Amino acid sequence: MLLKNVVRLGGLCAAGRFIPIIPSNLEAFAQTKTESKPAQGAGSTLILLGTQGGPGVNLARSETASVLVVRGQLYLVDCGYGTLRGLIQAGLDYNNLANVFLTHLHNDHTSDVAALLSHKWTSGRPQAATVHGPFGTEALVEGAIAFFKADTEIRIVDEGRTAKPEGLFHGLDLNVSDVTEVYRDESVRIKAAENTHFPERAKKKMPYRSLSYRFDSIDRSFVFSGDTAYSKNLIELAQNADVFVCEAMSLAMHQQLESAVKAAGPNTESIARHVMETHSTTEDVGRMAAEAKVKMVVLNHLVGVPNAQSGLESFESGLIESVGKFFAGKVIVGRDQVRL
User: Fold this and answer.
1) Which candidate, 169, 23, 19, places its Cα nearest to that of 91?
2) How far is C-alpha 329 from the chain's CA centre?
3) For 23-29, which contacts have Cβ atoms below 8 Å and span 24 or more sequence positions?
4) What are the residue ranges spanned by the domains of the chain?
5) Is 60 exceeded by the pLDDT of residue 107?
6) Are strands 211-216 and 221-224 parallel, antiparallel or unpaired?
7) Candidates 1.20.1250.20, 3.90.800.10, 3.60.15.10, 3.40.50.1000; correct CATH number of 43-333?
8) Which residues pair with 68 in a beta bridge?
């Protein structure tokens, strides 16, 4: 979780067309499909749906979410605010989404879970989905279903629906510390490991944890850091990965937070202290990428992004240069709807 975005971004970003669907009957609704333009084929494609760092709503970026498309199957990593719209903008049919993987339960990574599940249910052709994540994920899904309980009961009565959300949507708590396989099918094998987003002093007082994920697909390997400071577990998880999607904070912002924490005193819990101690600077990203010997770094979960295009280019160049002090491979600064 980060400080609210320090830059208010103006202007509208490019968006997919909104097509209202008003079916004459449920059968017709069931045949309705989202206009599709997914990158499909024999290989895998990563699409960044949201690259905004921390809880903050603006018109330029959605909160954190990425989707991996393998043989037409969708695997969603995190589900911050704007994820559902991002899937539609990417031309992906969210009804085909059967597995969601949450890195942790901060709201900038989970806010669209209820929206996603409820719209899957009201689509008229609901398909089952499992939300995987650390402790608390099962309860989160139960809470999401409770959130749209009234909508469910109304539609069962006056639309003749019979499917029950609690029979379709499930949360699965992953009890993971070291690198562990947590999922496998014909297209991907997924491993997870606990990272360092929550300090030891906090973990002593709560059962919640934060995870990183690795997807070994049919042609490439992808690692998603989630939110984390420098992490040995993450380095082990990311060994020789093709694509390393890692959160990043500029050194300038880290220095500002460090000054604020020093002024407040060492034993004061605060947002500034949390952000400074439990997120990765660009130099941290470079070190981890180099130690893991990954092929490409994609910077994600960004904060303080400038509004003007000229400022954006300078901002991105600075991030790339900082990572490049330690990592010699390709570095990409993530933007919403970028495909890799």
Assistant:
1) 19
2) 23
3) 23/124, 26/124, 26/159, 26/160, 26/161, 29/123, 29/124
4) 43-333
5) yes
6) antiparallel
7) 3.60.15.10
8) 46, 75
What tokens does 182 get?
């947590």
For residue 333, the SS3 value is: strand
Backbone φ, ψ for residue 270 (5° rounding): -160, 165
123-138: burial string, b at 16+ Cβ within 10 Å, e else: bbebbebbbbbbbbbe
Instruction: In whole angstroms, give the CA distance from residue 67 to residue 283.
Output: 26
Q: Are 285 and 323 in contact (CB under 8 A)?
A: yes
The string of pLDDT tens digits covering residues 208-259 is 999 999 999 999 999 999 999 999 999 999 999 999 999 999 988 888 888 8
Confidence band of 1 (pLDDT split at 50, 70, 90)? very low
Residue among 289, 168, 280 nearest 230 (CA): 280
Q: What is the pTM of this model?
A: 0.87
